[in-house]
Amino acid sequence: MENMGNTIALMNQKGGVGKTTLAIHLALGGAALGYRTAIIDLDPQGHVAYSLAILDETGKPPNGVFNLLVNEYAMDEVLELVPPDMTHFVLPEDIPLPHGPYPGRADILPGFKRTQLAAHDMDLNNHDYTTFTKAIRPLVADCDFVFIDTSPTVTTWTKPALHASDYVLIPTECNRLGLDGVANVWESMDNLRESHHARLLGIIPTMVRVNVGEHKDRRDELVQTYGDLVWVNEQITESSIWEEASDKACTIFEYAPVHPASLQMWRVVNRFMQVVGVKI
What three-state secondary structure class fits 57? Predict the structure, then answer.
């Protein structure tokens, strides 16, 4: 298998903007199209595993990241396969989507409360920030796309996550705090430029209320500042259907395949594939 070499960090230094939701839908949507994808959860809240109900015997997310880096487990010991029935969706007929060359699958490398301890352990044992990149190399080699879900604040993980990534994707609410979070990611990328090669892939407006003047004004401000990096045509509007799908531990693709929110997310998947260079 020829690896496409695309590792994407989902970042915004504000919580609740949809990073985990976006990572899950890009990964599982990609798997439904025939690509091999994975999500690495570097947020100690463990929301990736919770969102997909991939939990251990205690009902908690496994500490996969910690076990990989600190306990030196092999990658296949810490990966959790997303059940195949969670990646079989009704695909939209009106959106051209590229299909992969083999049966798709999605895995997650879950994180939980001990994830931050793994980062501190790297520091205490004088391991540099490249340790994480080296540890996930087998996973990256086996996947077309690896999505890294990050914490909403600058942590010890920020530098390793950037170093391991080819791209950064920023979901954001169209309000002042959301835009501040985008600016902070941009600043972090610039300040750490000597330690990474990642470039900004796009900025996706989320939870947009189309009839709210502030949301339009802030979206326009994003465009004025970042230009074509803002995925205006792929914005995600606010809807209670997202919470309903989350409560059922499934994607919007599975829960409400013909809902406008599902079509919006498929447009995001399509735009993502185009930007990273997958031919349709």
Answer: coil
Residue with tokens 């500490």: 63
Helices (H), 79-196: 115-124, 130-135, 137-142, 158-164, 176-191
What is the sign, positive or negative, of the torsion defined by CA atoms of 217, 218, 221, 223? negative
Domain boundaries, the chain: 6-274
pLDDT at residue 17, rounded to an integer: 83
- State the sign of the Cα–Cα–Cα–Cα dihedral 19, 56, 111, 37: negative
* Run of H or E residues at 106: strand 105-109
The Cα 212–Cα 206 span in angstroms is 13
Percent of the chain residues topping a pLDDT of 70:
96
What is the crossing angle of helices 260-275 and 19-32, to 10°?
80
Give the pLDDT confidence score for residue 212 in this predicted structure: 79
**Nearest CA among 76, 50, 73, 72 for reference residue 61:** 50
Region of 5 on the Ramachandran plot (φ > 0 left; ψ -120 to 50 alpha; else beta): left
pLDDT for res 1:
38
Comparing CA positions, the residue from 5, 2, 6 lying closest to residue 167 is 6
Q: Would you identify the CATH topology of the domain 6-274? A: Rossmann fold (3.40.50)
* Radius of gyration for the chain, computed over Cα atoms and rounded to the nearest angstrom: 18
| Residue-wise pLDDT tens digits, 215-251 | 889 999 999 999 999 999 999 999 999 999 999 999 9
Token pair 């991939």: residue: 54
Among 46, 45, 39, which residue's Cα sits nearest to residue 7? Answer: 39
